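User: For my dataset I need records formatted as: sequence, then structure tokens, nothing else. Please produce one.
Assistant:
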Amino acid sequence: MIAKNQNDLLEPDFASGEIILIDKGIGFTSFNAVYKIRKTVNVKKVGHAGTLDPLATGLLILCTGKKTKEISSFQDLRKTYSGVITLGKRTASLDSEGEFIEEKGIDGISESMILESRNSFLGKILQTPPMYSALKVKGKRLYKYARNGIEIERMPREVEIYKFDIEKIELPDVHFVVECSKGTYIRTLADDLGTKLNCGGYLSKLRREKIGEFDVSDAFTIDEFQKKYSRPLEAD
């Protein structure tokens, strides 16, 4: 495991296989992170165990070499996120990246209403994957249909919300922590909460804090990792 708190006595073998904890910054994709790590360690076989949207930050587990065979085991683990749901507006993408498509007043929204609505999402629930997602339908990712203005029918899927804590309410912003099963879309959860409150809502901030027992506090930023583990290019 390549993490900030690891024992530096052993030299990592990225070509054979290592597991790397990365704290992804805002503004670039999970695939961008894979590309940067691949170039840093000069290893072709690098993959990630769970996508983060460009505007989301936090924990990515990257695997190199033979460790890429373990990716599915990390994808199956529970995820913990913190973030902000902004009430009163909806966006096409369900997060702050998309254009606003609906706006309603929030004057009648109280803390007790938010907490009561939150409770309805605890446990096993059905979620419809958002159009702006990497889920494939007929061999094509949904976001590619969405960008062309095409709406594709999606079947609801069962996911589980183990924890949905409201940390702070500063309307229109609701600060939360969610622990959930794999396949859960936090953007959809934000939109569904806004719908339940009859005022709309979108995910304005998201950070992945944990994957199973792996914590973002142990992860390298891309810059930190590059400074410590940059490898020279092999000669042809």
